[in-house]
Write a structure and sequence with these properties.
This protein is of the alpha+beta class. It is built from three helices and nine strands; from the N terminus they run βαβββαβββββα. The radius of gyration is 17 Å and the shape is elongated. Bound molecules: coenzyme A. Coenzyme A binds next to β5 and β8.
Length: 176
Amino acid sequence: MMIYDSCPVHRSPFTVHRIVIPDSRLMSYSKAELTQLVMPNMQNVLGDLFGGHLMAMVDQAAAVAAMRHAGGPAVTASIDRVDFRERIPVGSLVTCCATVDFVGNTSMFISVEVYSEIISTGERKRTHTAAAVFVAIDKDGKPMRVPRLIPETEEEKVRYHRAQSHREKARQASGR
Ligand SMILES: CC(C)(COP(=O)(O)OP(=O)(O)OC[C@H]1O[C@@H](n2cnc3c(N)ncnc32)[C@H](O)[C@@H]1OP(=O)(O)O)[C@@H](O)C(=O)NCCC(=O)NCCS
């Protein structure tokens, strides 16, 4: 178990408490879901959700999952991939579901699945997927160790091994 003092500079929830970090957390602990109504000010020239808004939502959902797992602040290190498969029209609900799939020492590998829903019919479909890496930081902005990740269900174990192998390939490619 680690204990660290929170940042004295910024006024945020992280600044007021001393945070206790466990050695491990269940994968289910940090899952995050973010739902938003697609408003007219979020549209592109075709009347669908603008990709930049979606990327901000993806980043935010991933940040919630990362910070829950880390028990404190974490920053986006990279967004590897966003696949846009379907348009999301104005008036739809859009939901981003983020899961921490794998962790290194200080980094967390997060997948975000995006669903759109037509409110009047209840029709819901998966429209996008994304993968991001977040890094937990300490009060000086330096990378900080995160709890080990424990997958429980078969689905979680598949996610874990898939992300682990993706990370190995990315590391070999980047030489990191
Ligand atoms: C991300 C950041 C904290 C990494 O700091 P650093 O001193 O370069 O870190 P290190 O090289 O020691 O690497 C720390 C970890 O991050 C991982 N990492 C660093 N950069 C990465 C990248 N671009 N993609 C994936 N992983 C990365 C490393 O593999 C390492 O993982 P591990 O500890 O699990 O083995 C730093 O680059 C930073 O603060 N970047 C700005 C973040 C930001 O402003 N984001 C947008 C707003 S939230």
